[in-house]
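Researcher: Re-running this chain for the archive, since the previous output was lost when a drive failed. Same request as before.
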Amino acid sequence: MTLSSRPLARWLAVASFSFSLGSLAQPATSPHAPATAPSSATSMDWAQLAELASQRAAQPYQATPSELPPDLARLNYDGVRDIRFRTDRATWRSQALPFDVQYFHLGLYQTQPVRIHEITSEGVRDLPYRSSDYDFGANRLQPQRWGDIGHAGFRVHYALNNPAYKDELVVFLGASYFRALGAGQQYGLSARALAIDTVGGDQGEEFPRFTDFWLERPAPGATELAILALLDSPRATGAWRFVIRPGQTTAMQVQARIYLRQGQPPIRTLGIAPLTSMFLFGENQPRATDFRPEVHDSDGLMVATDTGEWLWRPLQNPKTISVSSFAMRQPRGFGLMQRDRRFASYEDIEARYERRPSAWVRPVGDWGPGRVELVQLPTPDETHDNIVAYWVPERLPEPGQPLDIAYELLWQGQDWQRPPAAWVSQTRTGYGYTKLDAQTQARQPHFIIDFTGPALASLGTDAPVDVVVSTDPNGEVLEALAYPNPETRGWRASLRIDRLDPHRPVEVRAFLRHRQDTLSETWTHVILPE
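Model: Regenerated structure tokens:
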């Protein structure tokens, strides 16, 4: 699969994410390897990489502006798009291995090179930039004069959907961003290695970036690929290992060791396993001027807590920045999900939002107490990612002390992670026939929430099911009804909430109950201020 023009615009712009967040620009990194990261080595494994990250954390951060050749620096968006890697030059293509690797060219948004190496049974070798590996299209350039300017990033190909053709499986491009696909999926949301001060930092957001990658050469017939990566930023370094297993759900086993630097301004928010997505409008926030019913890469945040409660927060496109936190002693999982998989919900033949993957983070080991944080930012169109979610540990390590994190990252399609009993299938807002005036309707929003799942399908339509609703002090529940929905074999909840102060938000929680038994996940929603 390849990227359509609109998703690619967002993907190339990932290095300029400051549009959405008002963030600090990403630090430039020298194309020349620093002392702690030799450009070539005889071997590399997890222990060596972690030691390299530790050494780098003990040294002052060095940022050197990248220098593109002048003729390359002058290229616009279309010019950079016209530079294409020659597929017959892909790493491992000539060995007929199950995975191929192709590379992205520097230019426009991607100006900072990364070093890429291969780990083989004979040792480690560099995978340098060669201009002969690229077709420059209609551009009038002299790349033979550039020398080894480095790669912008890379993509891995694998026969994911058809044994006769290798699709794009995973892409690493820009800062510490990466994305992957399962079978039948199309690129949507992104993941990152680390997020630092996404909101609330004194100096704006800091974008750590991968400076080096080591690709472990797969064996013939291999069904997984391992990648090592070294991360650096003004206030943190780290070692990452990814083991990628493609399939209907593509699974990534992620291992990370993070070090904070001494002497830098303190980090306010260290975001672990960050996910970045886009929500423009949807069934809960419709837009009358667009022919499409919904436009989003993800429609909600799902969280599994240590107490057994499952939470669902529908996403929104707010008028001002909105930050929500869900504290717990130990996370069982969280993710930005695309639950609605119907084409009729989007009606976009090009973007195919129903094929965008969900990303589910499943912690491995004890992450300890902390919070899942959701950041929602206003966006005028679908070309800008405006949703971020990550885990924030309650305590940060001392500078130079390691923070070890492991998790499974699942890129899911139709078979997305579901709560065990019942879940929200849609959230709609607005009134049908009513005698309320427009001002009252604005102050008292009305929600229709559909729940579905095995716990509901087994109930008779006369079962005593009620919806349990609570709000923060700024809200008052005026209506809370639950009744069967024969179209879904589930139940529908109808809620009307009064905002006591319409200029302040209201937090609302609702779930279905049968007698004293909880039937569903908890729908948790923030009514944004006027």
